[in-house]
Amino acid sequence: MTSVKQFRVTEPATPERLGRGAFVFTDAYSVFDWGPMPDAIPNKGASLCTMGAHSFEALEARGVPTHYRGVVENGSVVGLDDAGDPPREMAIDLTQVPDLPHEGRAYDYDAFYDAAGENYLIPLEVVFRNSVPVGSSLRSRATPGDVGLDRETWPDEPVALPEPVIEFSTKFEEADRYLDRGEADRIAGRAGLDDLETLARTVNDVVTERAETGGLVHEDGKIECLYHAGEVRVADVVGTFDENRFASNGREVSKEVLRQYHKRAQPEWVEAVAAAKREASDRDVADWRALCKRDPRPLPERVVAAARDLYAAGANAYVDRELFDAPALGEAVERVREL
Length: 339
Hints:
Layout: E1 5-11, E2 19-25, H1 44-61, E3 68-73, E4 76-78, E5 89-94, E6 102-103, E7 106-107, H2 109-116, E8 119-121, E9 124-132, H3 138-141, E10 159-170, E11 178-179, H4 181-187, H5 193-213, E12 217-228, E13 231-235, E14 245-248, E15 251-252, H6 256-265, H7 267-283, H8 301-319, H9 329-337
Antiparallel strand pairs: 1-2, 2-5, 3-4, 3-5, 6-7, 8-12, 9-10, 9-12, 10-11, 12-13, 12-14, 14-15
Helix pairs in contact: 1-8, 6-7, 8-9
């Protein structure tokens, strides 16, 4: 199981053959790599499944290979338009995910690929950025000049980039880290970085176009990919409020709302997480959560309700259908602005 969606296997993958399975989207959420937080956000799972299915179907219309097969309704796999209710389950082709052995923070990618054969989930995340919102990690890793901006310091508000920026980070390490191109190429295995970058740019274009139709601005996002018999396919989920950041009228419409709320409401926990990650790095251990001295507190009911409306209203806007009983997007955005 991932942190917020369950993984169902119908037919296991082999070193040569793709399997069959499904993602079952839950209402759990995760911030700061913590894993499931104390609360559930009603309708979140269905919102993400709906947006992801919509995005995959738009990609496949462009000829982009993916692992998506459809959404599940009453045990049958159908297209999103044929689903009567917002779906919670997405049918997918399965690839292998070999173990990634490690000693402390030293990871053995050679052993990963020895077990992978010709069928595996590439152990990278490919990140694309159209703008740099408040809270973006890019602000701590680069100067504005590094990404083509004619200024010396980052502003206190989101700033658009002249061209999308593509980055690579680890996928299976306990504390993910950004990589230079040389290390990313080594970790990518048989998959070429140019192919991964091309796929990321195409996904970025498609999600940006879909967002614009619903009055949303697509700020950044990521893809994960599988490699099978010489072909690279888009995997996991794309174009959702967990994988991507969106904005409307200058306000965040994504999981970033919950991240920023926790920074304001319980900064001591956020700092404890950061301190635990630093300590794990200093001690060369992988499991930083065991070193964290605080647990997160539950959200107030009003925050849960506002987050639910934001996910549901945003999904309605993104797919341009009234699938969820939710306020208009502008009203939902104003509610979270007041948190």
